[in-house]
């Protein structure tokens, strides 16, 4: 007469207790057998108390036979391919239950018992929608049956029949509710395990992100980019840099101290690169390779300006690092040299199916590397293509032409001076270095509450110098 979509948990071993466990539902067949056994019991007790007609013994037999027939229909016939077959079979149960209630002439307690089992099953299987449909089928079938057979002489049932009807209905509801409790408990456990696995996956993805540029990692984990061997042609701005004097320093310092210095340098420069949206390609020795325009781009002009702006800030930031290293006893004046070019390159995943590298290749990459090798310490050399995109905001000096392998004619190059806004009397950036003195000032980055402390420090330093040299 009804089925139960409930689920039970199975004990798991210690090896599988940490993974979500599949919860086998209480089979429709078992739930329907239980419900119809309860109904058959009500019929038999009704016959015993002479509340029902003697011929209704066949209804008890049919109640015991129908669950097996329904199971055959839903598993062995074309009905197994029908969508929502469980919901449809439950509607058939509601129709049968309504017919039964009409046959017994609406005897109150048995009728309510059958109705409660049906409605309880409908709510469990399909919620309010199934409950409304089931109620409609039940009422329609009951109305037809009453029209054919009429009401019972007395709507009251004997005490024995009423007690059996209440007990069997309670038994069905308790058993199905118990399975529902087990399912809910298992679902809570599964949800907790899934949350734990999700947190582990997030932690793992964050660890893996350290080996990829943030832009590449984000495009992969958001599904914007597939992890497969594919490339494309795009116009990018490419940046190369290395540290002048690092080789000599490596011969003087212990490997551990040198490693700490290099990691500090890479960390500081990576923060600057990410600030401007650069995709960090790789670290090689003391060299850094960065490109702009993939996997995200703000436009060719904006990408080139961001790339050169990053290089200018790196050059300024290197002065701060030199002061820090000098305070740590490193006297070698480390400086960086940089090269930038803009042009079409091939970008994407290179390598093998089981080991890929997201990088770029092309003659513009070679040009940027060549410019970096030609640059003097603290110098930024750029190609003409880059210069044409940034000349309105950044002052550059023409450095003539160079011959580069892969280019048919000499390539004009330019030296980056500074932002136009920072040139002249209104510039925000000042620097001065001597033995025993170093000053780096970027007034745009100084907060109002820090200005007083800086002025006091400068006045104190000036007063100290005047005391040591009265002529000033």
From TrEMBL:
Reply yes or no: does the keyword Membrane apply. Answer: yes
* Highest taxon, organism lineage: Bacteria
The UniProt GO MF terms for this protein read: adenylate cyclase activity
The UniProt keywords, alphabetically, are: Membrane, Transmembrane, Transmembrane helix
* Biological process terms in GO annotation: cAMP biosynthetic process; intracellular signal transduction
- Membrane-crossing residues? 33-49, 55-73, 94-119, 131-152, 159-180
Residue span, Guanylate cyclase domain: 237-372
Note the CDD domains from the entry.
CHD
**Pfam families in UniProt:** Guanylate_cyc, MASE2
Q: What is this protein called?
A: Adenylate cyclase
The scientific name of the source species is Tamilnaduibacter salinus
């Amino acid at each position: 007469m009804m089925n139960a979509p409930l689920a039970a948990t199975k004990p798991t071993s210690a090896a599988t207790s940490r993974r979500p466990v599949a919860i086998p539902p209480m089979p429709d067949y078992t739930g329907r057998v239980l419900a119809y056994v309860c109904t058959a019991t009500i019929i038999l007790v009704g016959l015993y108390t002479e509340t029902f007609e003697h011929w209704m013994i066949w209804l008890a037999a049919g109640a015991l036979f129908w669950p097996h027939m329904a199971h055959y229909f839903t598993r062995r016939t074309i009905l197994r391919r029908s969508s929502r077959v469980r919901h449809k079979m439950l509607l058939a149960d509601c129709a049968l239950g309504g017919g039964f209630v009409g046959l017994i002439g609406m005897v109150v307690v048995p009728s309510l018992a059958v109705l409660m089992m049906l409605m309880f099953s409908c709510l469990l299987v399909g919620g309010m929608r199934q409950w409304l449909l089931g109620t409609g089928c039940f009422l329609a079938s009951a109305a037809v049956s009453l029209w054919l057979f009429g009401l019972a002489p007395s709507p009251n049932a004997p005490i024995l029949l009423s007690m059996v009807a209440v007990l069997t209905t309670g038994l069905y509801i308790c058993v199905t509710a118990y399975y529902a409790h087990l399912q809910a408990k298992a679902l809570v456990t599964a949800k907790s395990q899934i949350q734990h696995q999700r947190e582990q996956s997030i932690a793992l993805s964050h660890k893996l992100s350290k080996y990829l540029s943030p832009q590449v990692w984000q495009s992969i984990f958001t599904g914007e980019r597939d992890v497969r061997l594919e490339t494309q042609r795009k116009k990018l701005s490419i940046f190369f840099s290395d540290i002048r004097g690092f080789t000599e320093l490596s011969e003087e310092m212990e490997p551990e101290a040198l490693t700490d210095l290099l990691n500090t340098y890479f960390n500081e420069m990576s923060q600057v690169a990410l600030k401007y949206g650069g995709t960090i390609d790789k670290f090689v020795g003391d060299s850094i390779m960065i490109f702009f325009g993939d996997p995200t781009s703000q436009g060719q002009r904006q990408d080139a300006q961001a790339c050169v702006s990053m290089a200018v800030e790196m050059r300024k930031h290197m002065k701060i690092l030199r002061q820090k290293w000098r305070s740590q006893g490193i006297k070698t004046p480390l400086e960086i040299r940089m090269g930038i070019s803009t042009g079409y390159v091939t970008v994407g995943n290179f390598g093998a199916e089981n080991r890929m590298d997201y990088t770029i290749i092309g003659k513009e990459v070679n040009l940027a590397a060549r410019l970096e090798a030609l640059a003097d310490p603290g110098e930024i050399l750029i190609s003409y293509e880059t210069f044409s995109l940034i000349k309105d905001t950044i002052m550059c000096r023409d450095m003539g032409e160079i011959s580069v392998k892969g280019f048919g004619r000499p390539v004009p190059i330019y030296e980056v001076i500074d932002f136009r806004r920072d040139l002249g009397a209104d510039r925000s950036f000042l620097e001065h270095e001597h033995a025993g003195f170093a000053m780096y000032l970027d007034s745009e980055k100084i907060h109002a509450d820090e200005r007083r402390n800086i002025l006091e420090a400068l006045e104190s330093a000036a007063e100290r110098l005047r005391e040591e040299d009265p002529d000033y």
